[in-house]
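Re: that backbone. Tokens:
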């Protein structure tokens, strides 16, 4: 079975599934956008191709950006597909593409017999479709920007054999006519790798903490309001004044992945350090780390905070639960889909800093109750999202799709 994964940014959520397929005898190829063409093959036999596309220079006030970027990306991808077909005779049995950036728009035109699955993460809208109500006022430019961002996403529905979405909440953002075609297919979590370790300690060359330290953790790609970082830091400032027996570790880049960009020398981390009265000696902020070190942070955590506005759920949430973290999550729809309050985690109003600090304090003081919630969280992920189960079901699904093609 030959499968081609398409994504704008590296393997992202396809990484573990692609590797599992390669290790189970599939011929796996991955293609993504990069500054210059390249062609490499790793130890698992996964071939990675990179094709040039425009730099990501989006501007908040440029409503034409999404379509222009998608058009140029689609052209680069189409040129690559044509070269693979004409020069190598390559015809994948399946293509699985992360949509919205134009990368999969011509798959069926180049390979008409190939089965094509479009992976949808988000639909940009100001409408709550289930209640037929607008959520918030928007400027004409913002309204138009959303409509244009959705055009490449909607265009996938006329060529894809199947349309996947990882969570029910994310699917709920699509208009009913499109949502009816979406299948909820979880990404899967490697629970063998992301597992608890009661003996885990923070002992790196970049940070060392005493063995029995109460540790509050926060780990995401960027520091930004959409993931509740400013609210988290306000709670840390409050809690530091209440007790002196805990350390806080933040693992993230001080950059914005989602939402309006800041100036190059600005960041929400810098703003928090400037605005809040924080004990810097007990606050440790570090950039992204290798996965093994990131896992050790989760395993050593006493309380792990995951906040988000209603948006795409980070796969780090399920990874933290699989690692046995006590997750304190925002009481928002994407988190409620995964966490049951006081059963598999703790839900708080992330805008209420006193409530957040109070619940972190409670976690530190109630290790027995917390241990039960941690165990429930991992059990929940093992039951619904464990990679071996999810990947085997996906592989069987894909084989059946090709066989019935």
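Recovered sequence:
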């Amino acid at each position: 079975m030959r499968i081609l994964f398409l994504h704008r940014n590296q393997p992202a959520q396809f990484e573990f599934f692609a590797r599992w397929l390669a290790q189970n005898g599939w011929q796996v190829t991955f293609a993504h956008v990069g500054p210059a063409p390249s062609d490499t093959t790793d130890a698992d036999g996964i071939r990675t191709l990179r094709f040039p596309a425009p730099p990501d220079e989006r501007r908040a006030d440029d409503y034409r950006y999404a379509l222009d970027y998608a058009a140029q990306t689609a052209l680069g991808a189409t040129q690559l597909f044509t070269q693979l077909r004409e020069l190598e005779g390559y015809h994948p049995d399946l293509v699985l593409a992360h949509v919205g950036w134009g990368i999969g728009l011509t798959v069926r035109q180049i390979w008409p017999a190939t089965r094509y699955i479009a992976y949808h993460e988000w639909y940009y809208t100001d409408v709550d479709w289930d209640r037929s109500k607008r959520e918030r006022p928007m400027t004409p430019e913002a309204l138009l920007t959303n409509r244009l961002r959705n055009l490449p996403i909607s265009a996938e529905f006329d060529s894809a054999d199947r349309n996947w979405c990882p969570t029910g909440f994310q699917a709920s953002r699509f208009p009913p006519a499109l949502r009816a075609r979406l299948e909820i297919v979880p990404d899967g979590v490697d629970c063998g790798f992301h597992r608890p370790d009661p003996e885990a300690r923070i002992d790196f060359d970049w940070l060392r903490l005493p063995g029995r330290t109460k540790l509050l953790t926060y780990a995401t790609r960027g520091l930004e309001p959409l993931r509740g970082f400013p609210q988290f830091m306000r709670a840390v400032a409050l809690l530091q004044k209440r007790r002196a027996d805990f350390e806080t570790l933040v693992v993230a880049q001080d950059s914005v992945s989602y939402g309006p960009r800041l100036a190059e020398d600005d960041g929400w981390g810098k703003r928090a350090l400037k605005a809040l009265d924080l004990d810097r000696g007990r606050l440790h902020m570090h950039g992204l780390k290798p996965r093994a070190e990131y896992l050790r942070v989760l395993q050593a955590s006493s309380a792990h905070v995951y906040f988000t506005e209603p948006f795409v759920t980070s796969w780090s949430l399920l990874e933290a639960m699989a690692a046995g973290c006590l997750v304190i999550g925002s009481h928002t729809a994407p988190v409620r889909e995964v966490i049951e309050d006081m059963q598999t985690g703790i839900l708080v109003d992330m805008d209420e800093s006193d409530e957040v600090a109070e619940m972190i304090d409670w976690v530190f003081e109630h290790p027995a109750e917390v241990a039960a919630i941690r165990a429930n969280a991992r059990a929940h992920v093992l039951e619904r999202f464990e990679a071996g189960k999810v990947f085997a079901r996906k592989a069987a699904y894909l084989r059946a799709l090709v066989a019935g093609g």
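The radius of gyration is 22 Å. The chain has two domains: 2-188+386-403, 214-384.
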